[in-house]
Amino acid sequence: MAFIEIERLERSIGAHNILKGIDVSLDKGGFLVLLGPSGCGKSTLLNAIAGLQPPTAGDIRIDGDSVVGLHPSKRDIAMVFQSYALYPNMTVGQNIGFPLEMAGIPKAQREADIATVARTLQIGHLLDRRPAQLSGGQRQRVAMARALVRKPRLFLFDEPLSNLDAKLRVEVRAEIKRLHQQTGATIIYVTHDQIEAMTLATQIVVMKEGEIQQTGTPAEIYNRPANMFVADFMGSPPMNMLPGQVAEDGAHLIPEAAPDTPLPLPAPLAPGRKVVLGIRPENIGDDPTGAVPLRLDLPVEIVEPTGSDVFLWLRLGSALLTARLPGNAQPPVGAPYPVAFDMTRAVVFDADSRQRIA
Amino acid sequence: MSAREMAIATAAGPSRLNRVVIYGLLLIFAAMYLLPLFVMLTTSFKSLDEIRGGDILALPADPTIQPWLRAWGSACIGVTCDGIKGYFWNSIKMVVPAVLISTALGALNGYVLTKWRFRGHKLVFGLMLFACFIPFQSVLIPMARVLGQLGLSNTTAGLVLVHVVYGIGFTTLFFRNYYEAFPTELIHSAQMDGAGFFTIFRRILLPSSAPIIVVCVIYQFTNIWNDFLFGVSFASGESAPMTVALNNLVASSTGVKEYNVDMAAAVIAALPTLIVYVVAGRYFMRGLMAGAVKG
Ligand SMILES: Nc1ncnc2c1ncn2[C@@H]1O[C@H](COP(=O)(O)OP(=O)(O)O)[C@@H](O)[C@H]1O
Ligand SMILES: [Mg+2]
Description:
Chain B: It is found in: Cell membrane. The complex is a heterodimer. Chain A is α+β, with helices and mostly antiparallel strands. Chain A contains eight helices and 20 strands. The mean pLDDT of chain A is 94. Chains A and B meet through strand 6 and helix 2 of A and helix 8 and helix 9 of B.
């Protein structure tokens, strides 16, 4: 039995089904990231767990007991909101102490707890300020401190980094990861940013339009996406997709974009089947060891240096493929460039169902 | 005149002329508005002899506070000659509870209508809005019946009730629009932190409500203090509010017409609303703006 168990959870408003039967389970100490595009129901799911928006059907159990119908404050859950939701009229210290005050903890104990958590998050010098006098990153820390101070059995984060600038986002992301490792807390974290999901999660749940697309570890989600939506959503630049037909021998793909260039499939399939081959940019590129059997000379259309990597846009018939080279590569634009295709890392989807079949 | 000089002259000329015209008009309008106040104030410090003999716009030659003392303590209203002081206190006793209660209820209504929505909240708010547009006159007779049945006819408590009922529509509108813009995440956060309905209201919402409270208090205070119709309909005689007493004082046809006393009484009647404006007026505009932009 897992620590958190969500079963066939549904929520509808009027005729609009926002969550269509969600099943999630998470072990104690796990870091679960709910990932999906804006409007797919992530916040709704999180609010249902928190008890802020009741589900229409299904069950949520924590440590074996159903919490459906329990008041938010009785669930022993803390939440960090996207806007941080700091109480504007209270000082930082009062903000952090508020949940303790509501729990009736005596003042002396409260102040000791506030001091401890403030030290962990390095905000001790801010305790007398008001939220309006803090920077975005400081507000974020205060919001986390207010959640941490209660030592709840479950933490919920709703897009906590989306209001920070890029540099700060990376810093706070590392901070959250450090806190998780230090405290062993159980966390459910919502984001639409696949990098955040990859870096933080022990388990990712990819959602789309109120339905789970795939549940798995970051590596599983990235390397073995369950369908074309997940494959496309994870990774930047996204996975190359080549629609086509399985050749007579069942071992090659005839790409629609370039019927003269059959590509070997990672696994045998029924001849004639309409499929989509997916291969990530990092599986197309230089091959210094010479171990990869498939090599093609493809004309370079665009070169995008990012510093750490160079992305190439290569022409294959009527399609453009993205390849990744090391940051020091200097491929000439316009000329053909020899690239190796690591087809063992490629995946194949059914063209109709869009599910992965190999 | 060179072409260049002419160009400068035509460029500067109309703009200076415009400014003279604009400020001139503004001054004229300001004078028009201030003149009655000026006449009231100067007249209230003149003796009756000076009023009869003198120029209405002249400053008092021999200023006296006698009319003010008479208006406050010994002018005759109806059959009693105790001045307006009793009625002034009637008004205070009416306006303070009425403003406090209607503002408090408006704040609670606004809180519930935005943060604790229930089935039909739109209908309830719609009906409250509708109440703002019901003309006073049309509720007089039903209201008189209700007050009679409650045993509150001709009492200050009855007037308080009437003003609270009539004011709730407006105060609810003010607070609802203000709280609509208040982040719901703060309410959710407080709920998760273990705060209940009233704790959230008192600790989270109210401390951020100063601007709208000021708007509400000024609006309600001015309306209730200046109300004549409800006062004259539901509280005559001893429990009449200031406005009704002032009317009775000025309209009494017996004896000599004491313009200076009338004017002093009128200024006294207007004083509380003026004070409220001066003390809280700064926040009034700010609150109105905040509501307008966010709501
Ligand atoms: N109160 C509501 N009434 C109607 N639709 C809502 C309401 N709240 C959310 N939705 C809809 O539910 C869907 C999911 O919303 P949300 O959970 O906030 O998405 P996410 O957090 O993934 O961006 C959206 O399409 C949104 O329009
Ligand atoms: Mg959201």
